[in-house]
Structure formats: C-alpha cells, structure tokens
User: Fold this.
Amino acid sequence: MNKISDKIINKYLDGELDYEERKSIEKLLTTSPKTRKEYLLLQQLDKNLRKMKSKSLSRNFTLDLMSKISVRNVAHKKQSKFILSILTILLLPLLLITGTVIYNLFSNYSAVDSSIIYTVRSNVSIWLLNVINFFSISPVALLWICLSSILSISIYLLFDEFSRSKLYLDNIQ
Amino acid sequence: MMILYSDNELIKSIKNGNQSDYSILVDRYKDRAFTLTNSIIKNEMESEEILQDCFLKAFNSLNKFRFESKFSTWFYKIVFNTSLTRINNKKRKTESNFLSIDEFENTLSNDSIIDYRNSEISEALSLLVRKLPNNYSTVINLYYLEQMSCNEISTILDESINNVKVLLYRARKALRTIVFENNYTEELL
Assistant:
C-alpha cells in the first residue's frame, strides 16, 4: 500500500480500523512524508474542532420563549372553553328535542292503548320513569329549565373569561 | 448544591404540568441548537427566530415524545427539519444558491483573513465551519459540538450511517483544504 485513501485516513483517525489495518497505516505514515503531513493536518484539525464552542444566546431568549408559551396556553384554554360553550349550546336543544320525542312517544302510546303504556312502563327503569314523569308535569317547566341552564352556563363562561383577561392584563403590567 | 435533572425527568415533570421546567431544557440546549441553526441559515437574527419556533414546536409535541430516543436527538431533528424547510422556502423565493466549497474559497477576502487571524482558534474555526455548505457544517456541528455518534446523526439527518461518515470525511477534507490553501495552517492548526 503506497497511498491511503481519505476514507481510510479518516477511519484511522476515528479509531474504526482493526489491528492489522492500523499497523499497515502506521507503517505507511512513517515511510511517506506526504501522507504523514496530510494525516497530521487532519489530526490537528480534528483536535481543534473538538475545542469549538457554541455561541451563547442571552437569558432573555428563554424568558421570551416562556412568556410566549404562557400566552399560547391562555389562548388555547380560551379556545377550548369557547368550543365547549358552543357544544353545550348545541347539546341542550338536542336534549330538549330528545325529551320532547320521548314525551310524545309515551303520550301517543297512552292515547292508542293504555295497556301498552302499562307494559312499557313496567319494563323501563324506575329512574327513567321518574324522569318522564318529571318532564311530563309541564312543557313550560321543561323549557324554563333548559333556558335557565343555558343562561347559567353563559354567565359562568363570561365571568370566567372576564377574570382571566383581568389576571392576564395584571400579569403583563 | 443544585441537583441536575436529566432530560427525561424534566420532560416527565413538564408532562405533569410543571411548565416552568421547560425553561431548564431550553437553557440546556439553546446555545448548541443555535449554533446548528446558524450553520444552516447563516443569519443570526433569523436563526434565533427559527429556534424560538423549534422550541415552541417541541413544547407542543412533547406529549408525542415516547422516550424511545434521546431528547437531544428528537429535538435536533426538529431543528434540522425546520431550518431546512426555511432554507428551501427562501431558495424558492430568491433563487439564491449556497456557496460551494470552491466558491467559498474564492470569497475569502483579505479582510476576513485578518479577522480570522485575530480571533481565537475555536472561534475562527466556527466561522469557517459556518461558511461550509449546509450538509457539511451540520455534520461537523453535530459530531464535534454535540459529540453525537454517527448513528445519532443519521437519525437526525435521515441518512444512512455510511452517508453520514462520508459527509464527515468530506467536511473535514473541505476544511483542511480551505485551511491549507489559504495559509491558515499556522493560525488555525
């Protein structure tokens, strides 16, 4: 072997060669001044590259980043709350419609044959029966309950939003 | 004495809601990640901005981190991919090409030579590395600054281990050529 490829020289530098290969490289390094010079240059470069230092970023970088994360979290929570309130508003009419359907279903059955409703009623759980009885007291009461629920949730969300905004503004100041 | 928490301990704590622990991770990786970003982007202001994005991305994806690899490998992959995307977008806009090694050698003016000679060796080498083509400077930074193995680098770059080794050899060769042909041998080596 009269000349070593760069690949081999780099492998030698990184200690990736086996014993026999190392020995033959070392022999060549003593006999070929050119190869020796190239290797020493590479070795010195490797040594100096290991001394390289990172450029430092200021502590403000971390502080800025953490404040961005806080702001994002607040925004994310606000968004979740908004979606939740929309879902609640959509769910309540759905419940109202379902309740009305169940109510009508039982009313129709009783109009057709009172024995059927007796059979059905005997099969449903006590809990469901109580619910149906409760809702069948008055449709106006049912409507009132739904509206007051929507109102209560809206007031809670508005109050929560207001207090969060105040807290956020206080923190900024 | 201050207890040093491992990356995994910190991540578990952040996942449990201790958001402020993320600042420890940020402080731990910001400088080295900045060097990596800057070696690809080659603009300090832009690199800082990209790094902020990377840390935000990592924070938002922390729930997806399954402790299957080191946090550093996972995070540097985000940094590398984000920087590359930015470079590609920029390239599309400006059609500017990055310097090849030959072009780089030709662009070293006398002024810059004086600067290199006056600065410390490690700093001067960092400057030379930053001016190498992206793939070379990235490998050099990950290998020497991060002290990562070729295996870890291959995960970040999405390349085979052999390709990473070849890149490393070529990067060293390119640096050696630059140092040698511009007579920085005395100053830098």
